[in-house]
Fold GNAT family N-acetyltransferase.
Amino acid sequence: MPKFLIRRMGQDDSFAPVADLLNTIRTEPTTSELLREEEEQVPPGKLHYNEAGELAGWDRPKWLAEDGKGNIVGFAMVSRAPWTEPGLMEFTLVIRPEVRGSGAGTALYDVTLQWAEEVKASRLITLIRDQDESSVAFANRRGYTAERHIFESVLDLSAFDGGGALFDSIGSAEQAGISFTTLADEPGEESERKLYELYKATEPDIPGYSGDYPWFEEWRKWTIGRAGVRPELVRIARDGDRFIGVATLLQNEQTGAMYHEYTGVLREYRCRRIALALKLLAVRRAMASGVPYLRTNNDSMNVPMLRINRDLIGFRAEPGMFKMVKKLR
């Protein structure tokens, strides 16, 4: 069996081989520059334990697997943020396809699992492509079970028929007193904080959501401050001065495509086709920008949003992901 060196990834390591590895499992590509930028947004690790003795705080250690020639053939990362459910850590493991089955994945996994157990994590969660049978089997053998199914959908904008009567939802909302704007039209911290409160009220309604909600500065960093999110891509529904709905797009520079990152409407405004109107306005924006396609993900239990995306707008079903969970304590 080939021997592999497993080591912690250092600050001076290049993110280029990691980007190459991640792009073997992601449907939208990333770059070393984006990974470096993301890493610089994360504060130094500072784990602690709450009054119940449960793991809390920050950390994001990473490991690399190298073959005998010094080539990086594997990457693993365990991470958590302070607003994550106590004890929970997210886990990523990727091995080059050509060296799978050679022991690199097992060696890398064993090191990261030992670290997670040492810091007293209670659960590990990971996302695995639902058609990657070997990776699902790898996880199952190590005690992971599928907790949720996340569906992926794509809308080919070159074949989109324009929405037809669906666009009447926009006019109907406007006739009922709802107006539509963008964050580019409503700049400044006051608008950003109103948008934050809207996200904070609606995001916990997503099936599978757990934990607390990040504070404003961290929310801003990881939502409207992300690479690819521009103010004109954040579409807002208003009732007077109140922000009551949002649809946010993120553009990938490598593909030119957009990811429909989030849609949320306050509970008291639901069932009025406002979410549909927001999504159609996002589609219209993408088409005007010459975007080839839109991609999005939905939890299998999020039936209302799946109906809007697939049954009404016409997003095409794509292979998705299993959320796999392992209990440690």
In short: The chain has a mean pLDDT of 93. DSSP finds nine helices and 14 strands in the chain.
